Amino acid sequence: MVKAPWLRARRRVVVLAAAVVAGALLAVVLLFVLPGGGSSNVTYLDSTDRAVLYTAGHRPLAPDFTGTTLTGSRFSFSSYRGRVVVVNFWGSWCDPCRAEAPALGVAAQQYRPSGVAFLGVDVRDTTASAEAFAHNFGITYPSVSDPSLLITQDFATAVPIAGTPVTLVVDRTGHIAGAVFGQASYAELNTILARVTGTGSSR
Amino acid sequence: MTDVRAPEADPFESSAADQDDHAPGNTDRQAGSALGLAGWLRWAWRQLTSMRVALVLLFLLALGSVPGSMLPQESTNPAGVQQYYTSHPALAPLLNHLGLFNVFGAPWFAAIYLLLFASLVGCVVPRTFRLAGSARALPPRAPRHLTRLPRSATYSVALPPAQAVQVAANVLSGHGFRLRRSAERRPAEDGDLPDGPWVSAEKGYLREAGNLLFHLALLGVLVSVALGGLFGYKADRLLVQGSSFEDTQSALDEFYPGRFVTAADLGPFGITLDKFDASYITSGAQRGQPASFDAQVSYTAYPGGPTRTDNLEVNRPLSVDGAKVYLIGHGYAPVFKVTDAGGQVVYDQATPFISGTSGNFLSQGVVKVPDAQPEQLGFSGVFVPTAIEVNGVLQSAFPAPDNPVVSLIAYAGNLGLNSGVSQSVYQMDTAGMHQLTTAPQLLLKGQSLKLPGGQGTITFTGYVPWVSLAITHDPGQLPALICGIAALAGLLLSFMVRRRRVFVRARASGPASGVQSTVQVGGLTRTDASGGFEDEFASLAAELRSAHDQAAQRQHEGE
């Protein structure tokens, strides 16, 4: 068989086009296969990528917010300025929040003498259920109600909050120094807090 | 001379090439072991970009989607997959191995659509180049014997050949033809142009432009779809009347982001469901069918922004902040208040119940009270908007809440929530619990059920409607629409415009050589285009002839 004349004449164009298309496809495949590039401004505490420490100088600024606590009093985040603050996003409906509550309670007791403030942000919840939860787990630090996730959304522009629970550690300058996305363990909280408070504290 | 060639050598070459590509049986039989690796690769590429393979891939794509809709999928219905495992213990692992519970994420499915994409792009890109070349191409040289063309006319005129061709060129140019002339080298000298000077004219390049537009727009559609898949997202959210949510990932019940969408790309709008009304047909055969749905919402496009209101109806979405919010479902959320043994209010909220397949919004749900003391409490319930009893079975006679009733079974024990593994809010694991009430307890609005053993009280305090919203953001939607329209326009253009060619050649004739010319006019068009060329050619030939006669007349008068 003789090839069509146009084929011979246009082969270079066809081969070029094929190369471009193949390259583009390869790029697309790589995009789908390769994991997202990790930022060098972040240190992962373990292999799961859930618990992170942000490098000083690259810490996202925590948004300021005001709200109402579960007990009905007004709260302004700026009143904690100058202190290390642990902000825990939780809900009474959230099963991992139940699992992590004892660890948060222990860490709160331990770091209170160092001046670390603990604050809950109670998301998509009702006061009755949230108070019962706090009562049940012996949580003594305050929680701000966030039924429509307005506060959560504010924080989600600073760090990638994809669900509940999330625990953030805000340093004395109001920047987010560390985070646990998902159920936090005592070890993770202790590691982050020891770094941020500079106490090198261990149990 | 080289400027003389048979017309058969140039059969609208670009159009012929169009048909070669993506044509069935466009198989290079020379490609074999003799051609080596490069030959094989070229053969494989040509196979991939052939129409036949593209159709096979399209069919495979459709076929591959079938199990995706027949079988429960991990991404959308994980509970259904678990159920399938329990009901088909032998078959399920095999299906899972084949990726049939996650069809749209399976490697074989990705292979099909990537190959299809490659096939389409590999077909369209080279054709685009060819069409672009063809749209810019000059008409071919005039054939030697114009009388052999489908349309032709011959006449004599008292003008030298070069002048006759010039007059013809002016006429054709005035009709918008693209021209190509014979080399005008000393036309009077014999031997340079033994068959006389000529002009070729071609019209209807818009056909190629339309074809080009169609192909480019087709590529645009592909890119737009990819754009939507990579940068768009879909999300679902159930919203109880009177409550609000912000478009942030934690607030969404389901979230299906595109490849390049992160939580930070969402929102930042917020929506409150102020009121939801559903009305139903109250009589006739259609009784109980929905008449209208209306969700009154207020929303802010960004936190702290002005609050606007809108009404969502079925197929009338709210557009906010680049996203569309659709009303896709609704139901009832009975409000329960639970006090535990110590008299503490441990639960007080609207609890969405889901209506099953049974009609008239007979809805089921669970109330989990994990912080009740001394034991966790759980209630499995049914909400009936218009309760009637048929043979001792509770049924709903109408979807509107004309006689709302809840029926509850109470449990106490361990809800199994503290392990940290998330459970569905619509299901309750009663394995660690014991039933407190033997029979389902019916409650009317305002009635309470005292739990035995002083375990507490549950009160059915009322009910509110809920709606389920689908939030979609597809940045490829508008480009895809524009490209689709452009593709259609290009296709119409390429169907309606004909390419046609007209050639004029003048040969010296008669005794006074060089003064008298025989003019031949020939024309052809593509046969697959609609008719009408005969008339166009006839009038054009007549116009040429009269122009020639007038020119000869003027010259004669001038002498």
Describe the structure.
- The complex is a heterodimer of chains A (203) and B (559).
- Chain A is an alpha+beta fold.
- Chain A has 2 domains: 33 residues; 158 residues, Glutaredoxin.
- Chain A is 37% helix and 20% strand.
- Chain A contains 6 helices and 9 strands; from the N terminus they run ααβββββαβαβαββα.
- In chain A, the strands form 2 sheets. Chain A has a 7-stranded mixed beta sheet with strand order 1-2-9-8-5-6-7.
- In chain A, helix 3 runs parallel beside helix 6.
- Chain A is elongated and about 75 Å long.
- Chain B has 559 residues and is of the alpha+beta class.
- Helix content of chain B is 31%, strand content 31%.
- Chain B has 10 helices and 24 strands.
- In chain B, the strands form 5 sheets. In chain B, strands 4, 6, 10, 11, 12, 21 and 22 form a 7-stranded antiparallel beta sheet that branches. In chain B, strands 13, 14, 15, 18, 19 and 20 form a 6-stranded antiparallel beta sheet that branches.
- In chain B, strand 13 and strand 14 form a beta hairpin.
- The longest helix of chain B has 30 residues.
- The two termini of chain B are 34 Å apart.
- The relative contact order of chain B is 0.14.
- The N terminus of chain B is likely disordered.
Explain briefly what this protein structure is:
The complex is a heterodimer of chains A (203) and B (559). With 203 residues, chain A is an alpha+beta fold.
The outline of chain B comes out as elongated
- Averaged pLDDT of chain A, please? 84
Q: What class, by secondary structure content of chain A? A: alpha+beta
Strand order of the largest sheet of chain A: 1-2-9-8-5-6-7
Taken as a percent bin, the fraction of beta residues of chain A is: 15-25%
* H/E topology pattern of chain A: HHEEEEEHEHEHEEH
CATH class of the largest domain in chain A: Alpha Beta
Question: Shape of chain A, please?
Answer: elongated
Parts with pLDDT < 50 across at least 5 consecutive residues of chain B: 1-32
Q: In total, how many domains does the architecture of chain A comprise? A: 2
Weakly predicted, low-confidence segments of chain A: 1-9
Helix content of chain A: 25-40%
- CATH homologous superfamily heading of the largest domain in chain A: Glutaredoxin
